[in-house]
Amino acid sequence: ALAKGAETSGAMPRGSDPKVKALLDRVFDRAALGRGVPPIQDSAKFGELLNNGNRIGFAYMLAGTGLSDLNKLADDQKAMEQAEKNMSTFAPEMGRWFDYQLAIQGAMTDSALAFMASAKKDVLERPQVKEGLGNVRQGLARALAGVFQTMAADGLDDGWRKERLVALSEIAPGAAKIVTPDEAKELQRQANALAEAVGDAGLKAGLQKLGATLVSQQKS
Description:
The chain is mainly alpha-helical. It has helices at residues 6-9, 18-27, 43-61, 77-89, 91-118, 121-124, 127-151, 158-178, 181-197, 201-214.
C-alpha cells in the first residue's frame, strides 16, 4: 500500500522511516526459517517466504520503470536502465532483500543436503525426488549468479558489496556440496572477475576465497 503507484512515480518508502523499517524487519525476518535445519517437507514454506520477500524487492526494482511485471523488464531497454539505477538508489533496501534471498537459499540447501545424506539410494533415484533436488540446485546457482551480477553494477560501493559478502560466505560451504562442477567453476569465475574489478583489498580477498570455497567440493 505504501508503494502504490511507485512504478510510475519512482517514489518508494524508505527503510529510514521507522514505520517502513518495522515492515521490512517483519518481512525479512530470518527467524521464520527456524533455528535448526528445516525438514525437506517445509519446501512450500520456503517458497511462501521467498515470494513475500520478492514482492518487496521487485517493487523497489521496478520503481519508475512504468512496469509492474518483472517478466516485461527485458523487453524495455529504458525500463532496464531505470531498474539498474534503482539498485544504487535503493541500495539499503535492496541489500536487505538480497541477504534474505540468500538466507532462504541457504536453508533450502541445508535441508536438501540433510535429506540426501539420510535418504536411501532408491528414494534418491525416484524421478520426482531427482526433479525436486534439481530445482533446489538450479535455483541456488541462479541466485548466486544473480547476486554476483548485481554486485558488479555501477553505482554500488564496496561497502555495500562487503555487506553482501557476509551472506554469500554463509551459504558457500553448502552450495559447494550441491552445485555441479560446471556451475561451481562458473560461479568461481564470476567471483574472481568481480574481485578484479573492486578496489577494496579485503573485499577482493573475500571474493577470491568465496570462489575457492565454491569449488572446494568438486572432483572434476
